[in-house]
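My current task is to audit a protein record that another person submitted. I have pasted the whole thing underneath without changing anything:
***
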Amino acid sequence: MKALVVDDDAFMRRGLSLYLTSAGFEVVVAANEASGWQLAINENYGALVDVAVIDIAIPPENGAASRNSHNYGIRLAGRIKRAYPQVGIVLFSAYEDRRDEVVELLRDGVKGLAYILKGSEPAALLEAIGIACSGHVHIDPEVTNARALADEVFARLTPDEQCWVGIALRHFNELTDREMDVIARLASSSSVESITTELVIAPKTVNNHLDHIFGKLGLSHVPAHLRRHTLLTKACMIHDLKTPAL
């Protein structure tokens, strides 16, 4: 797997790089938003990375000073997700007051996202990467109460969305482990083709899983003005927040 590490702190970049390399990642490092974006899309680096580990407070470009108030890491994460939704994103910060900025990404429907505090155990970083790369959402409990955040996200849905998402959430426990793997990848905007590659299964098997998933979650006959893919994404996000994987 290819990992992009973006942090203006050279010591932190080196430490993260060495640790991820020892864990089997091919790592490239950057110090700011501009260089991070270029490395994320550089064809010489395989067109895109599998996961990006980004400090929220990175500066925008070379020569700029980093400030605690900077949120260029959030901006970079959003750019990468919009261009390559399948890339896992792990955001980190030394400060707990960046919650609202991360929440904005969730409100925009971003999946495959984890947020942890600097200083977390190395094992927690690897688990966060695994969660993000599998299309799920994880927020460090030191940052905010995930269940309260799930309630907040649900409250911001339209009444129609709340009805259908509520139905789906009541049936998540009926999904098999394989169906959960498929649903997470679909919710993070993976195509059927990419799901077949990632899970090493046939396209027909993926489509069969999708039929079963939408049927079990009560989303087979969603009204025309709603998109069942969007409803699935929002239901999956809220489910992740209510049942954290870490």
